[in-house]
Amino acid sequence: MKKIRAVSLVIASLLLLALLLIYSKEALSLLPKTPIPKIEEVEPILIQTLLVAAGFYIVYIILAYTISSAIVRSGGKPGDVKMLTSFLRSIIFFIGALLIVSILAGGGWTFAAAFGAFGGLFLGWSLQQPVTGLAAWFLINIRRPFKVGDRIFLPAWGLVGDVLDVGMMYTTLNQVGGTVGSEEPSGRRILIPNAILFSNVVINYTSEAKTSEPYILDEVIVRITYDSDWDEAERILLKVAREVTGDIIRETGKEPYVRSDIYDYGVYLRLRYMTRAVDRPGIAHEINKRIFKEFQKNDRVDFAIPYIYSYKKGEKVFKKLGGRLKPLN
Q1: Burial class for 89, CB neighbours closer than 10 Å (0-12, 13-18, 19+)
Q2: 294 lies in which domain range?
Q3: Is the Cβ–Cβ distance between 259 and 284 less than 8 Å?
Q4: The whole model's pTM is what?
Q5: Whether residues 274 and 224 fall in one domain
Q6: What are the two backbone dihedrals, phi and then psi, of residue 242, each rounded to the nearest 5 degrees?
Q7: One domain, residues 225 and 195
Q8: How many structural domains are present in the chain?
Q9: Could you say which of 79, 191, 275, 328 would form a disulfide bridge with 218 (CB–CB 3.0 to 4.6 Å)?
């Protein structure tokens, strides 16, 4: 910062001296034995260009120092300082460059018209997405397809997240999953441009919630062997679901139920129940854990595991046994 102050001081002094050279001959006469250049000998356009460049540079130095000091005092990070000063530098240098080009082009309406036409075309092209994002933000606030606190899913991008903020340009999500294999908040912030919401499907897990908390239908799949007691297995599944989700059943009025599929090596029992949209993995874990313990204690049910028949290997074993089968137990 000390070097920046020194440079700005030098430039300010040079700028002041240039102003004295152009606009105050009387002030220059106060300097003894100083050769005073005639104003006609100095190129006006060059002087104006130098004045604009020096002036804008000084403005940047002062503003950058002010902004960085304010951010540091408020406890900001060095990254915040760098981002804001870089943005400020780009804006100021762009405006300064336009003024210098205007001076070199002689100014007047010709340059203003040409710049206006080009600038309008450039702005129309560059602001297309921001304008679309602004319109999307307006419609989101009016139609409210989702709100802060909702859990949404963007199938086109494979993103699931809890809505933290809906800004004018971006919607901020707390990513669900990503770093883990289940639907649990990871703490990573995702900025979704509002413009893409016009052309992408958004699935809201919680938009139709009429209870104190948003609930969705979930399922736990259990495979049982063909010699298991089907009714006993179904009883265990429903008993565990009612124990774990009792408060949800009382609030939603929806009881758990079982659906099934028959496969090559067992029966799939699909336990379906209402669960909290934001606590789905935790509830499923508790249900799986209790089902496992209940099956271990019950001799009438057993888990099915995949297995493969091999005729050749079976034939070899049969020959080793002397052509007769021995009981496995």
Answers
A1: middle
A2: 210-329
A3: no
A4: 0.54
A5: yes
A6: -70, -35
A7: no
A8: 3
A9: 275
- Asked if the structure places residue 134 within a domain, the reply is no
Backbone angles phi, psi at 254, to 5 degrees: -115, 120
Report which DSSP code applies to 303: B
Do 268 and 228 share a structural domain? yes
pLDDT confidence of residue 26: 44
CB atoms within 10 A of CB 274: 21
Cβ partners under 8 Å of residue 58, min gap 6: 8, 11, 12, 15
Which position has the higher pLDDT, 294 or 144?
294
Residue 92: the pLDDT is: 79
Element (H, E) at 293: helix 280-297
Residues of the chain with pLDDT > 90, as a percent, come to: 22
Q: Are residues 28 and 55 both part of a single domain?
A: yes
Instruction: For residues 247-274, give the mean pLDDT.
Output: 91
For residue 274, the one-letter residue type is M
CA angle (233, 237, 242) in 5-degree steps = 150
For residue 125, CA distances in Å to 113, 114, 122, 131 come to 18, 17, 5, 10
Question: Which of 164, 189, 204 lies at the terminal end of a domain, its last residue?
Answer: 204
Domain assignment present for residue 132? The answer is no
Alpha helices in 74-127 (DSSP H): 78-104, 108-126
The pLDDT of residue 241 is: 95
* CATH classification at residue 179: 2.30.30.60
| Same domain membership, residue 74 and residue 185 | no
pLDDT number for residue 55: 75
CB 161, CB 223: distance < 8 Å: no
> Which of helix, strand or coil describes residue 105?
coil
Identity at 32, one-letter amino acid code: P
